């Protein structure tokens, strides 16, 4: 996705003002972007698609703005010097029907309408359908949402509820602060008739779920497992990396859950089904908070690090909690690995259309399983803890992981990991000489 993201500046904060009216109904919106120039700028780009543009200002002065595909090209009245702080304000009419579609696990993304509101599912590059952004997985900034809703609806976003104020006209203004930087693809805002339920995780961590009113009782049993899941993952990855967490029950017919930062979306169908299926989603999205959210992707070809890690811990958890055994799941993935590589690229070599295919999930979890078999469980666990600790709050990529794993293991793991990540065929599985890959037949 070479056109996503923009150079020349870094964003310090997004402040988003939404005057929500009704599902599938355009509404007045504004985005204030505080940024710092990393070079002298006579113009700069924002990722911004659709929506009806009203006005653009830079430091309060009107600016020229032209659309070029999914880019909004902004020319300020005066050039911005290298190192200068500047503020962009974009006023627009937001269109909450905007979606895009992918032929992989993501399916539809963007604004996901519900019966009485919306849920955001922005992965991989749907943020530009919602607000002007520097939409690259390595680029993160804090986000403030100020959302006005009708009195019968609630708004919820990732982060802390700062204020809830009833205006003179009876509408409610909700203000949320992400508290920590977040990549645009992991931003969450949902509007609807929600009930908020609160509990505590390890060390008193605030856990706040947002649940459609008619689903509170039906989803309660599995949502109550979050403190247990937090404790289980902390034993393996160290302290949870954010200040709060919660589950947003998505009553949208979504086929997949999503690891939006601090507030994971889990489809209601999963939470109304069997326990193993529910816990797979809950643990998977929670694991992402360490790997994919706190440790961000340097670029999209590093997605195997995010999805592979989350799938590995999901499989490791269900191995002892009523689901398929880890070894059986990994053996099945190994058998299919050459087919996946043939169809969708090796784990660290995706194409844009194949980004969220099975090779990036079970196929990439298999890489971590192979590494564990190669170096032993104790060394593998040290690699994992070091990875999420050293790169906490930073972006990292495949080369960083290989170097860190080699450092912790005390030997160069490039000859081992390179064919697993880039080769045309699955290498032999350490410790399992009897495992066989099914031949690819065109």
UniProtKB/TrEMBL annotation:
Q: Which UniProt keywords apply?
A: Cytoplasm, Hydrolase, Metal-binding, Metalloprotease, Protease, Zinc
Q: How is the cofactor bound?
A: Binds 1 zinc ion per subunit.
Question: Which EC numbers characterise this protein's activity in its record?
Answer: 3.4.11.2
Can you tell me which residues form the catalytic site?
A: 285, 361
Q: Which EC main class describes this enzyme?
A: hydrolase
Q: What is the lineage of its organism?
A: Bacteria, Bacillati, Actinomycetota, Actinomycetes, Kitasatosporales
**Which superkingdom does the taxonomy of this entry point to?**
Bacteria
Q: Which GO terms describe its biological process?
A: proteolysis
From the Swiss-Prot or TrEMBL record, what is one GO molecular function term?
metallopeptidase activity
Q: Which co-factors does it depend on? A: Zn(2+)
Q: What Gene Ontology terms describe where this protein resides (cellular component)?
A: cytoplasm
Task: Work out whether the entry's keyword set contains Protease.
Answer: yes
Q: Where in the cell is it found?
A: Cytoplasm
Reaction equation(s) it catalyzes: Release of an N-terminal amino acid, Xaa-|-Yaa- from a peptide, amide or arylamide. Xaa is preferably Ala, but may be most amino acids including Pro (slow action). When a terminal hydrophobic residue is followed by a prolyl residue, the two may be released as an intact Xaa-Pro dipeptide
Which parts of the sequence bind Zn(2+)? 284, 288, 307
Q: Which organism is it from?
A: Streptomyces shenzhenensis
What name goes with this protein?
A: Aminopeptidase N
Q: PANTHER family, per this entry?
A: LEUKOTRIENE A-4 HYDROLASE (PTHR45726:SF3)
């Amino acid at each position: 996705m070479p056109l996503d993201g923009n150079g020349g500046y870094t964003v310090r904060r997004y402040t988003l003002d939404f005057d929500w009216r009704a599902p599938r109904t355009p509404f007045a919106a504004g985005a204030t972007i505080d940024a710092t120039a990393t070079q002298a700028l006579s113009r700069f780009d924002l990722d911004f698609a659709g929506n009806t543009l009203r006005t653009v200002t830079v430091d309060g002065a009107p600016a020229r703005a032209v659309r070029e595909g999914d880019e909004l090209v902004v020319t300020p009245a005066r050039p911005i010097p290298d190192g200068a702080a500047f503020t962009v304000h974009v006023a627009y009419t937001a269109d909450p029907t905007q979606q895009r579609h992918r032929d992989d696990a993501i399916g539809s993304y963007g604004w996901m309408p519900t019966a009485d509101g919306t849920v955001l599912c922005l992965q991989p590059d749907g943020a530009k359908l919602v607000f002007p952004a520097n939409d690259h997985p390595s680029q993160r900034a804090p986000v403030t949402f100020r959302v006005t809703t009708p009195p019968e609806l609630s708004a919820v976003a990732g982060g802390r509820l700062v204020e809830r104020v009833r205006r003179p006209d009876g509408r409610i203004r909700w203000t949320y602060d992400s508290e920590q930087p977040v990549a645009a693809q992991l931003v969450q805002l949902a509007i609807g008739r929600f009930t908020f339920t609160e509990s505590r995780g390890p060390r008193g961590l605030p856990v706040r779920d947002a649940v459609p009113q008619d689903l509170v009782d039906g989803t309660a049993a599995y949502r109550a497992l979050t403190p247990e899941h937090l404790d289980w993952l902390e034993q393996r990855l160290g302290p949870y990396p954010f200040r709060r967490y919660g589950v947003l029950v998505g009553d949208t017919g979504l086929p997949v859950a999503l690891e939006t930062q601090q507030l994971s979306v889990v489809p209601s169908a999963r939470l109304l089904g069997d326990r193993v299926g529910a816990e797979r989603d809950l643990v998977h999205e929670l694991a992402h908070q360490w790997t994919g959210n706190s440790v961000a992707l340097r670029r999209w070809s590093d997605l195997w690090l995010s999805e592979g890690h989350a799938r590995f811990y999901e499989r490791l958890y269900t191995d002892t909690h009523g689901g398929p055994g880890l070894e059986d799941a990994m053996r099945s993935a190994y058998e299919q690995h050459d087919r996946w590589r043939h169809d969708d690229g090796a784990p660290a070599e995706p194409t844009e259309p194949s980004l969220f295919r099975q090779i990036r999930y079970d196929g990439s979890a298999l890489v971590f399983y192979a590494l564990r078999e190669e170096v032993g469980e104790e060394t593998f666990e040290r690699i994992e803890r070091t990875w999420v600790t050293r790169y906490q709050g930073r972006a990292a990529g495949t080369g960083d992981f290989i170097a860190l794993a080699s450092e912790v293991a005390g030997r160069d793991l490039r000859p081992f990991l390179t064919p697993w990540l880039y080769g045309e065929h699955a290498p032999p599985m350490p410790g399992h000489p009897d495992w066989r890959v099914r031949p690819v037949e065109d």
